[in-house]
Design a protein that fits this description.
Length: 496
């Protein structure tokens, strides 16, 4: 949600043969993939934050002796523009290393001087360095059972409360920010802990991607729509490439031939490695179809979906659909022109895969399907197969409806307008996750800021001179709304 990291996510492929899609966790017998796999292998950027560690309690919801075990939760802090009593802007960490999210959330740094805000980025338990147990023990329900969104929200509440006390600034108003899964946490935090955070900015937060609130095919329908809008021919070529790829499965020497077509660094073990490689490229590119060059997951040009489609549309007339799709997907993996071959198998996942797999197998059940209209091969959803695989992997079965029981989501407008307030849901319709988010105003203070061209939490990226007017305007509206929250808070405080 990346992975994110979206963060970031369960979809299922019921018909054999099945493909593994790296962008969203999908069901494959005996296998899971991360929701938003982040490309974080490069050296970490130098960030303008001080790293701190907070002794966090293991279990906030029981009073057994083991509940009082503590672990050190990492957080980053920047007080450059802050004064005691001023606002505190908190990023509710996603499913990954908090430094990665801080480096890709320049918006908060940009606005800190305007609000004289203290910035705090809190790492999610069981990710990055915030591990309650050694890594080798994070393989079963005995330890992973303490990993949930509810525990994470309680972590944030505990840390923020302690931090304000230690800073002798308990009256400071707190606004929480989050993107993707972190955006879901930000919205839920405002609803669960309104006495701690006066408002939340939730960007690309698919809080409605559960149960049957939105159509299960919405995510892949959105990816397909992005490519169709760029070029109908491009959409049709990609749609036809899967059939050509499947033809190599029963062809003598097909895997070896496919390895050459895909310029694999070493021969792949099956056609599904090539299928996953293509699938991931198209899904991720749709998600990060940013209006300027970016290095969010891979180095990419501005509007990379359009650039992919130009490659397909300009390819030689006699080229196969598969070779044209490969050429387009290569843009995602090799825009910088540094790769002489492609590693289609065995790529390491730096995103906290085991932790997210656990969350997907317990609470974060997001059913997804692929319709016949999609540019991807159609597949249905099978809760039973998913649940059986979770049982096999972790010894647990998912709580299929837990998220909507715990946080709500159904009839959200009728419910939240009666008790919720001060939440911004920002989305760009180029982002496939937008279909599971809030796209219409719920009340005067729970608002939806939606742009036609925006991609995955693009508003959280650092501002540049090349930003289009609609993005500048979206950020301006966000700042004006937050300014209003703070003004109201300080006015109320002055009258107490």
């Amino acid at each position: 949600m990346a992975l994110s990291s979206f963060i970031l996510w369960l979809l299922f492929l019921a018909a054999a043969p099945l493909a593994v899609v790296e962008s969203i966790p999908i069901y494959v017998p005996g296998s899971y993939k991360s929701s938003l796999k982040k490309d974080v292998k490069n050296a970490k950027p130098k960030l303008p934050y001080i790293t701190q560690y907070f002794p966090q309690i293991l279990d906030h919801f029981t009073f057994q002796p083991t509940s009082y075990k503590t672990f050190y939760q990492k957080y980053l802090i920047n007080s450059q523009h802050w004064h005691k009593g001023g606002p505190i802007f908190v990023y509710t960490g996603n499913e990954g290393d908090i430094e990665w999210f801080a480096s890709n959330t320049g918006f908060m740094l940009d606005i800190a001087p305007k609000f004289q805000a203290l910035l705090v980025f809190i790492e999610h338990r069981f990710y990055g360095e915030s591990l309650p147990f050694p890594e080798e023990k994070l393989k079963s329900a005995k330890t992973l059972g303490y990993l949930s969104s509810q525990q994470a929200l309680a972590d944030y509440a505990t840390l923020i409360t302690s931090l304000k006390k230690n800073l002798s600034s308990e009256a400071s108003p707190v606004v929480v920010f989050g993107g993707s899964y972190g955006g879901m946490l930000a919205a839920w935090f405002r609803l669960k802990y309104p006495h701690i955070a006066i408002g939340a900015l939730a960007s690309s937060a698919p809080i409605l991607q559960f149960d049957d609130i939105v159509p299960w095919s919405s995510f892949y329908d959105a990816v397909s729509q992005d490519f169709k809008e760029a070029s109908l021919n491009c959409h049709e070529v990609i749609k036809g490439a899967w059939t050509e790829l499947d033809g190599f499965a029963n062809k003598k020497g097909g895997v070896a031939e496919l390895s050459k077509i895909f310029r694999a660094c070493k021969e792949i073990s099956s056609i599904y490695s090539a299928r996953d490689w293509l699938w991931s490229a198209f899904v991720y590119t749709a998600m990060v179809n940013y209006p300027t060059e970016a290095n969010f997951m891979k180095p990419l040009p501005a509007y990379p979906v359009e650039e992919m489609c130009k490659i397909i549309d300009k390819s030689p007339r006699g080229a196969t659909k598969l070779s044209r799709a490969f050429a387009a997907a290569s843009l995602y993996y090799n825009y910088s022109k540094t790769e002489k071959c492609f590693k289609l198998e065995g790529d390491e996942d730096d995103h906290g895969l085991q932790g997210w797999n656990w969350q997907a197998c317990t609470e974060m059940v997001m059913p997804m399907t692929c319709s016949n209209e999609s540019m991807f091969p159609p597949f249905p959803f099978s809760y039973k197969e998913f649940a059986d695989d979770c049982k096999k992997q972790f010894g647990v079965r998912p709580r299929e409806h837990w998220i909507t029981t715990e946080f709500g989501g159904k009839r959200i407008k009728q419910v939240l307008k009666r008790f919720g307030s001060n939440i911004i849901f920002s989305n760009g319709m180029q982002d496939p996750w937008s279909r599971g988010s809030v796209l219409n105003n719920i009340s005067s203070s729970i608002v939806a800021l939606v742009t036609e061209k925006g991609a995955h939490h693009v508003d959280f990226r650092s501002a540049t001179k090349k930003d289009p007017h609609w993005l500048v305007e979206q950020r301006r509206q966000e700042m004006e709304i937050i300014k209003g929250w703070l003004h109201e808070y300080f006015m109320d405080n002055s009258q107490d």
